[in-house]
Design goal:
Elements (H helix, E strand, L loop, with lengths): L1 H21 L5 H36 L2 E4 L2 E4 L10 H5 L15 H16 L1 H4 L3 H17 L1 H4 L11 H21 L4 H27 L12 H13 L6 E3 L4 H6 L9 H8 L6 H10 L4 E5 L1 H5 L2 H14 L2 E7 L2 E6 L1
Parallel strand pairs: 3-4
Antiparallel strand pairs: 1-2, 4-6, 5-6
């Protein structure tokens, strides 16, 4: 979605450049880009269309963080409703999301502002440079989207995810400002001094914080509810044979696959059964496990998050009462049992 929006603003910048300079959109290059995008969309539909046919509407929209109900389509917001201020741009924090790092640093903010002011002062000249026109449109779009929770919180979803896109245009506009300054002097000593000052300034205001964030350790993943779960899955890897078929009652198949076991994440029956497991009887559960040749099951803390605490307790009691399972690992937040 974000890449599509970024492309749309790229195309809008190309169109604006042609309208201002040529008074027309009749340019093969403009429409070639549009056609290329159309081919990309068609190729994407080959995948998403097949996913829709295999898994249906509910599973597909859930995977895309979409909600469809009462004839309305909404996108789940993952930004937490955060509203950024000028300080979030000016300061480069040492603690940030490693994949969506915020903050540009004072040097980059000043350089971007200078770049925009120079573009305004040299508007006639700048309008003849397509890449600057596109970059300015990109910059405006990125800033608006990052402030989406202030401007249109129900429309501009996931504002925090536009920081990487902002960084692309920031580099272009800041680079334009620096090159304009360098070209304004003739002495090579002065040019060298400008380059050194700019590099040191950027490093001083943002270099170390960016280094800290980008070299920090990634967490094990957002799909885990508690650290005990990870310990349980690690113990599973050491306890049962590799490539054993393990069915996670509530968690993602990728978690057991990542620990060397097997589960059919692509099977629509597996996906569908997990979505209704809270209401399944013990007989239905064991029938499913036999049919799909699962030798083990896991019950972990994620169940509390997905089906609720009471439903998790009831599910565990139904399985225990059936006496068709042998407990292999029992730890806080994790249970591994073998199907008899």
């Amino acid at each position: 979605m974000y890449g599509g929006l970024f492309f749309a603003t790229f195309w809008a910048g190309m169109a604006l450049y042609r309208i201002v300079n040529r008074g027309s959109l009749r340019d093969p290059a403009l429409w070639r880009v549009f056609i290329i995008c159309g081919i990309g969309v068609a190729a994407a539909l080959l995948y998403w269309g097949s996913m829709y046919l295999v898994y249906g509407n509910d599973t597909l929209t859930s995977g895309l963080s979409l909600s469809i109900g009462n004839g309305k389509v909404s996108i789940d917001d993952t930004s937490g409703g955060i509203k950024y201020s000028f300080g979030d741009f000016w300061n480069a924090p040492q603690s940030s999301h490693i994949d969506q790092a915020t903050g540009l640093g004072a040097a980059m903010v000043v350089l971007v502002i200078c770049g925009v002011l120079l573009a305004m002062l040299k508007a006639r000249e700048i309008c003849k440079k397509e890449w600057i026109v596109i970059s300015l449109v990109w910059l405006a779009t990125s800033i608006v989207y990052i402030h989406g929770n202030r401007i249109a919180p129900h429309l501009l979803i996931g504002a925090h995810r536009f920081w990487p896109w902002l960084s692309v245009t920031v580099v272009l506009i800041a680079g334009f400002a620096v090159m304009t300054l360098i070209n304004s002097v003739k002495s090579w000593h002065a040019k060298s001094a400008i380059i050194i000052v700019v590099l040191v300034w950027i490093a001083f205001t943002a270099g170390y914080p960016k280094y800290v964030v980008q070299t920090s350790q990634w967490p094990p993943g957002v799909s885990w509810t508690a650290a005990e779960e990870i310990s349980g899955y690690a113990a599973m890897r050491q306890t049962i044979p590799k490539n054993s078929r393990v069915f996670p009652m509530c968690n993602f198949d990728r978690n057991v696959i990542g620990f060397g076991m097997r589960s059919d994440a692509w099977d629509p029956d597996v996906v569908s059964f997990r979505n209704t497991i809270a209401n399944a009887t013990a007989e239905e559960i064991f029938s499913f496990l036999r049919q799909h040749e699962y030798a083990y099951v896991t019950l972990d803390a994620t169940c509390i998050r997905t089906i609720g605490e009471n439903a998790t307790v009831e599910l565990a009691q139904r399985l225990s009462a059936s006496q068709r399972m042998t407990q292999v690992i029992s730890a806080p937040g994790f249970l591994l049992a073998q199907v008899r």
